Amino acid sequence: MTNPFDPSTEYTGETFKNLTLAAVAVEEKEFTGCRFVLCTCQETIFRRCRFVDCKFRICDLRMLDLTDSSFRDVRFEESQVIAVDWTRAAWGKAGLLNKIAFTRSTLNYSTFVGLTLPDLALIDCVARDVDFSEADLSGAKFAKTDLERSRFWNTNLTGTDFTGAFNYTIDPANNTIKQARFSLPEAMALLYNLEIDLDDPDLPGDEIA
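^ thats the sequence. predicted structure below, dont judge the formating
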């Protein structure tokens, strides 16, 4: 398939609509203030590309290869961003300036292992079977997101917002959750790994003879 981005290397303020880039290699391109709408990029390779202030809206981005590509202020809205290994991307020192946000999108089977992404935002998303192990997500947002079977292990969740999130399993003994925000009743799941007994005063008990 012909690469629609050749031969130019820089794109600013452009809108790309209804592009189909299945299994196409896009290399060493820079996109600034660009919009991708209704695009299909299944198994597309973005190698050594740079995305700044870009938005992907209603796009199919399954199994992207983001080798050595960088992201700053990039937003994904109502998109399928499934089975993406984000550890292959190029991240700045200590995660500075790396800002990516997902809204009403699906991120199933993706991995963020070991990344420092304090500004990561998943709002009203489906993120099942996603691996966040060893990541620094302090201050991140997971509001209203389905986190079923997603893995948090040795993850820094200091100040992270889980308001309205559900189906998560987070062991307080193996993660840092200081000042994190949770909603009831979902937050009761945090107690499952503490080996404690809970008494509900509203439930009838045995009367003392």
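DSSP finds no helices and twelve strands in the chain.
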